[in-house]
Amino acid sequence: MTSKPFLCALTGDVQAVPPIWLMRQAGRYLPEYRALRAEAGSFLDLCYDPVRAADVTLQPIRRFGFDAAILFADILLIPQALGQDLRFAEGEGPILDPIRDGQALAGLAMDGLHDRLEPIYETVERVRGHLDSKTALIGFAGAPWTVATYMVEGGGSRNFENTKVWAFRDPEEFGRLIDLITEATIAYLARQIDAGAEAVQLFDTWASALPETAFARWCIEPAHRIVAALRESHPDVPVIGFPRGAGLALADYAARTGVQAVGLDSAVPVGWARQAIQNQCTVQGNLDPLMLVAGGTAMTNEIRRIVSAFKDGPFVFNLGHGILPHTPPEHVAALVDAVRSAP
Ligand code: CP3
Question: Which residues span the domain enclosing 168?
Answer without folding.
Answer: 5-341
